[in-house]
Design brief:
The protein is 35% helix and 27% strand. The chain is of the alpha/beta class. Strands 5, 6, 10, 11, 12, 13, 14, 15 and 18 form a nine-stranded mixed beta sheet that branches. Helix 1 runs parallel beside helix 8. The two termini are 39 Å apart. About 3% of the residues have low confidence.
Length: 369
Amino acid sequence: MALPPEVCIRGAGIVGRTLALLLARERVRVALVAPAAAPPGQDVRAYALNAASKALLESLRGWPDAAHATPVREMLVYGDEGGRVQFHAARQKVEALAWIVDVPALEQQLSDAVRFQPRIEIVAEPVPAPLTVVCEGRISATRETLGVRYEVTRYPQHAIAARLQAEEPHDGAARQWFNDKGEVFALLPLGDRQLALVWSVDQLRAPALLAQTADEFNTALHDASHGALGALRLTSERAAWPLQRAIADRWTGQFTDGSSWALAGDAAHTVHPLAGQGLNLGLADAAALANVIKDRDYWRSVGDARLLRRYERARRTDVLSMSLATDGLQQLFAHSADPLPALRNWGMRGFDRTRLVKNWIAKQAMGLH
């Protein structure tokens, strides 16, 4: 890059690479800090991405091929005492409610797009720039050095992720079960009879599940899914991580040298995964920040404090709303004392019959509001 960068992005994950591509498209010079590649290993993560995220990534040529992005035609949510809620893409008059995307394929697609963008320079260490954007994830060293308070609420749960093979076809349906212990068992469609598992379990139970043999784990999967797809077979390693809800008290500010910084993605916020909105929120951060930079007055720097405050205001409300919604749903199923189970399942059945409210909720989740 002949001229110095205008923006330095610390963190070359999905949000960081997406932001780099958005800015480069607007002729902004970007330095993308990408540490040395981690040792190869199996990545079993999959993300549920909504229509807004899909459109954003497609505009950047960052959307993976059909083999690695499975449309969700139906969403089935089950309570612990017969409660059930259904969402259908056809009734919403959309192609899909969401797409379940293979993380390694998405990362590779974005990596290839970055490689062919001349306004993005990959660097090993942070470099000076009028604006530094921190996209380092929820464990961010840079955020710590800035003195930002990351207000964390830890759930007494761990998420277990894996890939599965189902005996019966999934028919493009994502299925999710809540139990009376606050645990959430989700089966997400990936390809033909392939599934991505996201299982939020009590933190004391997680080690035992991870230590089970494959056959023992398969039995636990069958029990948790109530046999909805027949026998389920583990086809990958199992990964696990602690769950939390968090939000930074400040998303923007200035370094001592007068240059500016902003947080985006998990460095700014995390939510419970039960609604599958974590990455959608991070991609919306990238889009919002790129838009305020794109629409700035010609004489304003990309690090102008007013621009950055506009970005923070635009995103904080949406993030807080989703955080509270997912936390409330998790808390609703975390208590089993009567009469809560009967009331919440009665509420689910009633909600399932309210078409207007269901349609509004579905549009919010799809990013169509």
